Structure formats: C-alpha cells, structure tokens
Amino acid sequence: MPIKLPKCIPGKKPHYKLYYFDARNIAEPIRQVFTYAKVEFDDVRVTQEEWPELKERMPYGKVPVLEVDGKQLTESSAILWYVAEKYKLTGRNEWEKAKVGELNDILKDFRSELAPWFYAKAGIRDPETEAERYESVAKPVTKKFLERFSQVLRTHQGGFYVGNKETFVDFAIADYIFTLNKMAPDLLAERQDLLQHVERIHNLPQLKKYIESRKDTIV
C-alpha cells in the first residue's frame, strides 16, 4: 500500500516530525534534544518494508529527515544543530559554540574511522570480518579518539565537554560511548571517566525517564 506522510498542521508552535529507522544511531541526539527541551515531536520509525517507497520522497533519498511544518531538512548534523540552537543547547557564547562544533566534527571523524568494524560488529555489513577488524580498526581507532575525549573532559571541572553546562555534543558523545560499551566493553575498560560522563548525562532530570524507557536497539 502507498505510504502516506502525515500532514503537518500549522500553529503557533512548530510541528516537528523526525524520520529515521528504528534505531538510536545518528538520530538519537536529535530525539534527546527535543526530550530535554520538553518539545513534542513525531518520532517516525521507518521499517525496512516502508523504506523503498518512502526513500523516493526523502531529500537525497536518505534519513534522518526533520519536517518542520512540512518543510524538510536533512543531514543529521544540520538537523541537530538546528534544534539544539533553537533550544539553547549549542553553548552560551560564540567560543563555546565553536568548541561544540569542533567536538561534533571529531565525533563524526570517530564514527567514520570506526565504521568498518562498527557495522561488522552490528551484523549490518561484512559480519565475517568483525574479529579481524576489531584488532586492526577498533582498538587503534578507539584508543586515539577516546583519549581525545578524556583530555577534553579533564579540562572542565563541571563534568561536561564544553563549559559547565550540558550541550548537544554531550548527548551525542555519551550515546555513542554507551553504544560502544554495549558492543565491546573491553574498549572502555580503562575509560571510567567517559562512562561516568554517560551516567551523568543519562541521569539528567530532563532525560532520565526517556533513557530508562526507550527501546533497546543494537545501535
């Protein structure tokens, strides 16, 4: 049957619809920003059966896509920055915003370099290569990037990555560390500071209930 995209009803408040698959991954920090800010949004979880037809109606044929009163925005970083800026989670001044952007780009590099092992481990792509890629990719890549994140945390007394208050990059890094710790705890065995940061973010009053009740997915 044809897939009908729900119509947006104009109003004083923007009507948000976030399209992504039934997974956390790159859409999860966006969901957490909305949740933290207590902003209602439609969390549209696209099934594999629905995707071929829906793909034709998405910009560039991919997700996540955010609809704002019917207007579409794609690319996870652009969406995340848009909603985080709107709800004051990008930093308190120009310098903090620049550092948040810097860390978000570093996280993107981390994801990209780790992808060959990550998707093999998740069973999404070339799962038979997981053991070899754990040694050749996962160990050296995580060591490099996790040390960077630890260094940044050590420079901030508040326990957040930028300034002394949470920003969207705390949500993004924490969720990725959370996922890695589920997939391969040995990679985080010596990074208790990063795991403590995950707990700190997941126990924020604005996020705690959501984190505890969200669906458990592989990634």
From TrEMBL:
Q: Which GO terms describe its biological process?
A: glutathione metabolic process
Enzyme Commission numbers on file: 2.5.1.18
Q: Where is the GST C-terminal domain?
A: 93-219
Domain GST N-terminal residues, every copy: 14-91
Q: Pfam families recorded for this chain?
A: GST_C_3, GST_N
Source superkingdom: Eukaryota
A Gene Ontology molecular function term of the record: glutathione peroxidase activity
| Database matches in InterPro entries | Glutathione-S-Trfase_C-like (IPR010987), Glutathione-S-Trfase_C_sf (IPR036282), Glutathione_S-Trfase (IPR040079), Glutathione_S-Trfase_N (IPR004045), GST_C (IPR004046), GST_superfamily (IPR050213), Thioredoxin-like_sf (IPR036249)
Substrates-to-products reaction catalysed: RX + glutathione = an S-substituted glutathione + a halide anion + H(+)
Provide the top EC class.
Answer: transferase
User: Is Protease tagged as a keyword?
Assistant: no
Presence of the UniProt keyword Thylakoid in the record:
no
Q: Which SUPFAM superfamilies match?
A: GST C-terminal domain-like (SSF47616), Thioredoxin-like (SSF52833)
Which family does the entry's similarity section mention?
Belongs to the GST superfamily. Sigma family.
PANTHER family assigned: GLUTATHIONE S-TRANSFERASE (PTHR11571), HEMATOPOIETIC PROSTAGLANDIN D SYNTHASE (PTHR11571:SF224)
Q: What is this protein called?
A: glutathione transferase
Name the species this protein comes from. Answer: Bursaphelenchus okinawaensis
